[in-house]
Each structure stands twice: as structure tokens, then as C-alpha cells.
Amino acid sequence: MGPDQGGRRQGPENYPDKSVSNILSYIEHTLRENPELNRLIHRVLREELIATGRIVREDIERRANLIHEAQDFPSDTHQRRWNSEERARLDAATRELAAELMSYEEVQQILVRTVKEAKEESLADYLLDPQKKITGPELLRKLEEFVAPPAGTSKDSWNPEEQLSPADMEAVKVQLTRLLLTEDSKLIRIASKILDITDFLEVARNAITTDNGIGKVGGKMTGLILFHRALTVDEKIAEERLGVKLDPDPHPDFLPIEKPMACTLTAEDVFEHVIDFNKLQDFRTYKRRPLEEVKALEHDTLDTFRNIEFPPDIEKKLQALVDRIEGMGPFMVRSSSVLEDSTSAPFSGIYNSVVFINQGSREERLDQLKAAIGEVYASTYSERAIGYRKALSHLGIFDAEENMGVTIQQMVGVKVGKYFMPVFSGVGFSYDDNVTDENMTPEDGLVSLALGHGKAVVDATPENPVRDIHLSKPALRPERANDLGSIQDVSQKEVFCVDLEYGQFVKKNFYDLQKEVQFDQRFAGAISTERRGQLFEGVYEGLKVITFDGLAEDRRFAEKMKWALNRLRTVFDEEVDIEFASNGETLTFLQGRHQMTYDSSKGVTVPENITAEDKVFEISSDKMLPTVVKKDLEYFVYIDPAAYEALQQSGSRSEVQKRISEVVRAVAAVNSKVKPQSAFYLAPGRWGTNMDESRYGLPVEFTQISKAAVLGEIIDTSGGLHFATASGGAHWPSNLKAIGLRVMVLKPNAEDTDFNYDFFKNTGDNKLADFVGSELAESVGNVVRVVNVPEATGGKYLQLASSRKERRALLWLAEKGQE
User: Fold this and answer.
1) What is the rounded distance in angstroms from the CA atom of residue 785 to the CA atom of residue 766?
2) Domain finish residue from 354, 380, 410
3) Which pairing describes strands 808-815 and 494-499: parallel, antiparallel, or unpaired?
4) Which of 260, 347, 671, 781 sits between 20 and 30 A of 772, alpha carbons compared?
5) Helices (H), 20-70
């Protein structure tokens, strides 16, 4: 049989027409050429006739004169077996009906596929055989062979997926998803529907595996692959395969979507091999050590992994990668673990990302890359990561194996002087749970933007804010007064970028940076320029301020982001959050995952009839209150604002930081022993600020407050206090939502607030020593109060009800179980 113009194999030359007789002759010719496949070919043709509804089984048997009387005893299966004569009649009937009811092209495609699969080890055979050992290199070879068009066939006219039946193709995609991406059943279904076989080939090409194994690319890379495909999949394909209707990109020529160049060291495979190769097997039980021990050993752990050796097969592949990306600018080496970005625990900000500058000699660049990979591996065993898994052990993430994949991803950006940075970067949420106006639609979403690297978004503080764009009202600005000073107060002041001269990731003050380098019109959407005391969108001569007014007021940007978030929500059937960056010409989505949201579906009614003596605080008019109910809180943990302020003045900065560290240690110790969801934690200013800004709040990690029922942030600037800003949970938004931990901003001196400071300062005895020991309790007992509420109040517990709808909140005392 020779190839036709489309590259498929044809029947004999003496069957040029496609009549029934010649289709029949073609089938018989194929059977003569492949006698050992007689039963298989007839079975496949019969299945096709029945499965496509052309005929029912009884009609085939009737044509073959095989209709028998119904048996009284179906268990007499020997009467159901065909003899040789009956089988011959059945096969003849099958051939005749196939020739009558199917087209020449259909028969040809089925027979060519059947013969090929039977005589060669097909991709389906390789992947679906449970006894087969699958390796990364062999899988890549199989995929490349499968996708390659036959000789004489153009790529444009070749659809490799037609080589397998739809059922086999779906099974292959499901298995490829399990092998390379995820075990999550929901994501497996989506991936097998929207990814083409060529997409899996790309994944395999960019996965660095051992020569004798295979592993997944991890949660972060899986999210990138699936989200990018969801944004670019053809709308008709999405409707056919997923049953969802998607709108096309409203502005495809404005910031067209681009996929970043990225590759991944696989999780279970490479990670485990590196552990064994470096004799680091003891780290497999490292998570079970006390956190104090883990913290004490962190620097040693980091040094150990920075200096690991890689097995020869991985070393060779890393060297090839370094050669391939030479001259392509800096890369970000990011964690992509198996547990990361799961729907139960997002691991947001838990593992390290490290900049790979990608400069220097071949050997220097390889050393840079290996050190960066080692740092990411080391973060698996950090106090933050292990503490996080312990704190959220009820979600099943502590005992689960955490195999670390590492993604090496090209950074998005442009060169500005000696610096490399994105024109803008940011995060987006399909559900905006911080709407500030009743006329806003939360489902329109929210994006937060920064000039430069997205670390500015992740580490945003009131001193270095970023621009939030509520997609319901994108032009809405955050400042109260429309003057230069007010706008500067709420504008980004620190920019993260790569210093190409010194090969470092740096934080630069924007006002110093604009004196050092020239920003061009690519930054016009992010920068406004001051002229005669007023700001004008765009880059001109004069003082520049990061406002993002240009992007916010360009309807194409808001419409595109709203479209992207809504499309992702539709495909994944859940709220999503994304990370993105732009070079000013294209938009690159760097990561995507399930958006953690608070459950505010249940209405909350704040009680009216609480006596004054039982009220602890009451807020009567605040539109930004969370919707939350907490009952029967046994403890409160209170950081006294005045005592914490005095601590800030108690000596040199190093002495102050030592005292603050003791306060943090005390809070962490209480958190480790208190029952989850049984205590109200209150502190001045911001929970989770960093040590350098500890005068504005308490520099705790998420894991050190994870058992709180509610976090209260006290805003108070009276009497010499300096706690003017709250975080609102901005330091750990996804992690707080994962465990349903709400943050309440409390303003004791506001007109709408009745706040009983005396209750927290003087009620009951301080039980801190029961949690931390006498020495630490004596040192920080004047700052940290831990009170057993029922013991101090004659059996009453704290009750909290807060309603954004009612704009009211109340904390009061009541007996346990009392409504």
C-alpha cells in the first residue's frame, strides 16, 4: 500500500474508486496482508459500526444467520460460543456491513490505525501497560515519534491525535497528566480535555528528569501550563470538549498573551535522586524535628543544599540548559512542589524563589544555577515551610510527602540602564472580596500592580503600597484628596529589579532610580509626571510618580483582565488568582491557582440586646467589616499598645529587636499550645510586618498565629502611640483564607466604636507563664497578656459577631453555648 497526498496509506492501486465493492476488496486485501490480525480487524470494525449507531448487534447476527432462541438458563455459556463456521459468517457480515455503511476514508483510517497499533508498540501501549517502566527520555522519544507527520505530509495537514481512537486518546492524555502534571482528579479532567498531545510533548521536552525515571513538574508549573492553555484555547474546542461557552479576547492586539520560556526539574524523580546522591536521606524525617531545632539549623541546611552535587545525568542536562539559555537574560528559579498551589493549602510565600542572573562564563553560570536550585530545595526544610505544614496538619499536608520540583523560568522585562525589570507586574483575583463600594461587583475581580518585579506586590506595606485596581471601577483611586502629596503617599516607592552590573536582585528607591536611569514610553501606563504641582499621565521631564493611572484609565486593560479572570473561573469552575508580568508589549501569566475565599454565604445577625457590662467592643458603622461569627472563645492574647510602644524606645535598635523577638517567641509559643480557633489575638498595628518596620506592628510569621480564631489590629495614634495603619491580612491573604482566619481592624478612638481597653488590660490574671515558662513570661509579661476568659469572668466566654451587610460588629461575654 502506498501513501496518498495526505500521507495516509491507501489500498491496492486496482481499487481507485470508493464503491462498496472496492471498500470490501480493500478490507479483504488488508486481511490477506495481515492474517494474524483477522479477529482484531473484524472486532474493531464491528465495534465501530455499533458504537457509532449505524447498526445494532442483533442486525449483524441476523445478517450472519446467528440469531438463537433465548436461553432459559443464561449460565449455559457454552451455547453462546461460536464455532468456526459461525465465526466465518459473522466476519463476512461484518465486512459487508462496513463496506455498505462506512466511507472509504473511515475504513482506511480504522484499518491503518489498527494494523499500526498491533504491529508496533503504540503510545497507548507504552503508557497504559501497568507493567511498563516509563522513563522521561523514552516518553519524550515516544511522543516525538507520535507527533511527527509521515513522510510527505505537511505539519499543517497532520493531526497526530487521529492515530488513536477517541477513547484511547483520552486515556493517553489522562495518563500523561498523571505522570507529568498532577493527581488532582478535577485538574486531570480539565487537562485531558483542553491540552493537545503537542502540549504534552512540550511539557516533556521542558521537563528535566533522570535517565531512568520520571516525575511531575509540580503545582506551580502545572498551574502555569493549564492557565495559559485555558486563556488561549479555541472557543469552539472549549465548548466541544468541556461544554462551556467562552468569550474571545476582547482586545487580542493589546498586550497579547505570551507564554514564558520555562523548564522544570521534576519533583519525585530528580529531587529524590539528588537526596540519595548526596546522602541526605535523614532529611526525609526532618519535618518531625522540633521547630526550634529546625530554626537553629537553617543556615547549615541552606549551606548544605547550596553545595549539593547533581547526579551525572542531571548535571549533563543542566549544562545543556545553561548552553541553551545563554544570552537570554535573567531567570527566576522557583519552587514547584507537588503539594504547592493545592486547593486546600496554597503554600503562598512559603518556599523560596531565587534569581539566576545568567551572566558570566559557562562554568560560572552553571554554578549560579546549581546554587539557586539548592536554595529552593533547602526551603523545603525551612522553619517557615515545616511550621506551615504543622500548623495546617488538619488539611492533610504534614504527613504527605513533599517532593520539590524546581521551575527555571525566564524573567519578563526590559533593560533600563543597568537594571532589568518588568514594566509592570501584579496579581489578579477573580473575586474581589475587598470591594469598597456597594455598587461594585465582586465577581468583576481585582488586580494589584507594581512597577518592576512582583515582589513589591507580595511584600506591599502601607509605607510601600501598590496600586489596587477594582475592575468594577478601574479608575477609582485610593487617596482621599486629589493633590500631589496625597497621591505620593499612596504610591509605590520601592522597586525590585535585577542589577545586571553587579549580578544582584535589588530594591531601589524609585525617586533615586529615576535620577539614575531614563524611563521611556513603555512605562507610560505606570508612571505619571509632575508639572506645576499637578500630575499628568505618561513619562516626561520632571518628577515621576508611580500611579498606574494610564493603565487604570485604559478600558482595554480592565476589560482584558476581567475577561481573563472570568474565562479562567469558567474553565476551572472556581475562583482563581493569577500572577502576571509585562514588558510593555505583551502580557505573560506566570502562575495560576485556586483562589482561597472566605465563606460569607451565611448571613450574620449582630445581636442588639447585650448589656453594657457584657460588651467588650462594639462597632456601629464600618463598611469594611468582615462577615464572621466566632463562639465560645476561651482565651484572648493581647499585645498592649502602650507597652509595645515603650519597648520601641528601650535601647539601641539591636536591643529593641531582641526584645521584639522575645515578644514574637512568646506569641508563637502560645499559638503552639492553644486549641485551634479558641482565642482572640489582638495587637497594635499590623500582624506580619517585617522586623525593619516593627514599630508599625508585630513581625510574626503566619505559622506563629495560625491557631487564632480572629486577629485584631488596633489602630491608635493617641497618647504618643504610632500605630496608624493596619494590614487587613495583606501579608498572608491566601493562607488566612485557607483556614478561615479573619482580620478585624479596630479603631478604639473612632466615633463609631465603643472599645473597652480596660477589659484587655486588667481582666483576670496573665497566664503567659503557663505557655512559655517563667523566664520569658517575666521578660515580656508587661507586653503580652494571655487570659483565660471563663476563669476571669465567672464562666463566660467571648462571642464575636460581625456583619459587613449590617456594618456592625460586637464582641461580648456570654455563657458557653448561649445564643
Assistant:
1) 5
2) 410
3) unpaired
4) 347
5) 20-33, 38-51, 57-63
CA 619, 622, 624, 628 torsion-angle sign: positive
Three cell numbers written together for 362: 559557562
What is the domain count for the chain? Answer: 4
Instruction: Grade residue 328 by pLDDT with cuts at 50, 70 and 90.
Output: very high
Read off the C-alpha cell for 390.
504543622
The whole-angstrom separation of Cα 750 and Cα 444 is 32
Q: How confident is the model at residue 348 (pLDDT cuts 50, 70, 90)?
A: confident
pLDDT digits (tens, 9 = 90+) for 250-280: 999 999 999 999 999 998 899 999 999 999 9
Least Cα distance to 29 among 108, 122, 97, 88 occurs for: 108
Residues 329 and 405 in one domain: yes
pLDDT value at position 481? 66
Q: Which residues, 6+ apart, have CB-to-CB distance to 60 below 8 Å?
A: 46, 49, 50, 90, 93, 94, 97
- Are both 168 and 208 inside the same structural domain? yes
* Distances 332 to 327, 497, 687 between C-alpha atoms, Å: 15, 12, 29
* Total H helices, total E strands in the chain: 30, 30
* H-only helix segments in 253-391: 272-277, 291-296, 298-306, 312-324, 362-378, 383-391
Number of C-alpha atoms within 13 angstroms, CB side, residue 550? 20
pTM: 0.82
- Average pLDDT, integer, range 702-713: 95
Band (pLDDT 50/70/90 cuts) for residue 4 is very low
Q: Which domain holds residue 449?
A: 414-594
Q: What is the mean pLDDT of residues 284-307?
A: 94
Instruction: Say if residues 764 and 789 touch (Cβ distance below 8 Å).
Output: yes
CA distance 114 to 48: 12
Please report where in the chains the cell 539549623 appears, as a residue: 297
pLDDT of residue 760: 97
Residue 571 dihedral angles phi and psi, to the nearest 5°: -65, -45
**Is residue 659 located within the same domain as residue 722?**
yes
Is residue 464 over pLDDT 50? yes
Mean pLDDT of 495-510: 95
Task: Check whether residue 632 and residue 520 sit in a common domain.
Answer: no
> What pLDDT digit, counting tens, does each position of 564-601 carry?
999 999 999 999 999 999 999 999 999 998 888 877 65
504-509, strands of its sheet edge to edge: 414-416, 419-421, 494-499, 504-509
